[in-house]
Design goal:
This protein is mainly beta. It is built from 3 helices and 9 strands. The chain has a single domain, classed as Jelly Rolls (Sandwich).
Length: about 150
């Protein structure tokens, strides 16, 4: 039994909470796979799943890597719209429903003064992805395509 104790301690340390979740990279981003009529494309996203994280979003960021973005997720469908207040880079946004089907997409320009325009579909959504302006268009992503978020609990 004494010989097993160090091995057990080593195994527990290796399984600590600092290890990335399944599908998560070392930088905290997880793959968001989008199935288009042309094939699959992947956006590496940070997850915003709390009210505070969703409120902050990508505001204040001066740049975003080419294939990176942010996914906003809820536990159940919601009616939501987004704005670009204090967001410094132009973005494109895609909204999906509870079946993972993209229902709307918009190009959004930075906004520094009220009133800022809002962007959102006329139906409940389960998630949203933001990427650099033009990303979804350049990758052939459109309404009706489906998304799969590869995050442990998202």
């Amino acid at each position: 039994m004494r010989r097993l104790a160090p091995l057990l301690a080593l195994l527990l340390a290796a399984c600590g909470s600092d290890a990335p979740a399944v599908g998560e990279r070392d930088d905290g981003r997880v793959p968001l796979t989008i199935r288009t009529s042309e094939g699959e494309v992947t956006l590496l996203v940070e997850i915003a799943d709390s009210s505070a994280e969703r409120a902050e979003g990508l505001s204040g960021r001066r740049s975003l890597p080419a294939d990176a973005g942010m996914a906003f997720v809820w536990d159940e469908p919601v009616t939501a719209s987004f704005w670009m207040k204090e967001t410094l880079i132009p973005l494109q946004i895609a909204f999906w429903d509870e079946d993972g089907r993209i229902v709307a997409s918009f190009e959004m320009e930075p906004c520094t003064a009220d009133p800022c325009p809002t962007y959102g579909p006329d139906e409940p959504i389960a998630g949203v992805a933001e990427a650099n302006a033009g990303w979804f268009t350049e990758h052939g992503v459109g309404v009706g395509d489906t998304v799969e978020l590869h995050a442990g609990d998202a």
